[in-house]
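U., I forgot to send this yesterday:
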Amino acid sequence: MKRRHLLKTLTVLPIAGSLIPSSFILNASPLNTTPVKTKPVDYFEELGVKRVINAAATMTFLSGSLMLPEVLEAINSTAHDFADMYELQDKVGVKIAEMLECEAAMVTSGAACALVLGTAAAITGMDAEKRKQIPNLPGPRPEVIMQKNHRYVFDQAITTTGAKIIEVENVPEMEAAINENTVMALFFNAAESWYGIEDSITHEQFIAISKKHSIPTFIDAAADVPPVENLFKYQKMGFDLVTFSGGKMIRGPQSSGLLFGKKALIDAAKLNYSPHEAPIGRPMKVNKEEIFGMYAALKAYLAKDHEEEWGMWLKRTQQISMVLEKVPGVKTAVYIPTGRANVFPTVDVFWDKEKSSLTADTIYNQLKNGTPSIVCSKTERNGDKIINIGVVLLKTEQVKIVAHRLKEILTGQ
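Result:
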């Protein structure tokens, strides 16, 4: 470099340096090794969003459940690097399939997404042209068989694929409904819990009829752990596809889910999903942090002591009951659903309505609108409208808070 060029460069450097913020220069200096402590931003406060104590269940409108520490660690530790999403989904799927003792698995953006992808897989198989055309395939609409008393709000995920739901009420009707347009049969596992009625076709009958006609079966068991055994039960029965929510009692990310079962169907489901750029599942993409988080959540869920956890939940019901039953006219009872979904201990709260003007609606609203905001459940037992308190999603310190706040309302203090 010529001398005059060097001199020009040196004269410019201080000016260029003055354009760089001093904070950047200080932070970049090797002498500045002390980490700068900043106060964490309280985004609830900044946005004016009220914190809620969840004394109900894993409801989506209450943001599901709280992620396990292992899940948060997985999310935070993987957020700083890129990954090939094809490789990540495949390798996590292999590990999940090993844990669940099935042929194949994948992480989805919730169980509702799994319903879309599972149905799409049954329709398209490995046919690239069908993947492009779905949900507007030429010719007759694909048909999915369901029991009439299993129809529910989430079966719109099935029709999103362009499929038509065919309702049946018994075994002969199911046999008669299967034709060349039938692509799948869907079993809503929580129907008994939701509607209080028995299945018109049992699991075993449903599977047997479908297998007889080579129709894949899909069971929606989104909220059906605990018990942990349910993660293995339905695929061992013979269902070809199974879905569970990741953001309920498995305590993964709220927007995560599991789809697992036969490898051919899972392979087809992946082709209908992101990161592929055109398929029907593209808008339902799940990010890498959620995939890692779902994997960590399942590992932690399978490893935990479920009997110990159940005992802890029962202890919480006792703590709440001891506080409330000191109020004259108030009685409590531990309630455990007998159905297949949301099976865990809760506390039913009864009060003497002849001596109190309080209604279940009044108590519910006072809890919800108070400080802190506590959301419980309202229900009916033998014609009596009561309050039901869920304990499984409470933090340890919140058990007393819920009990004493409810006691205040019941005593009018």
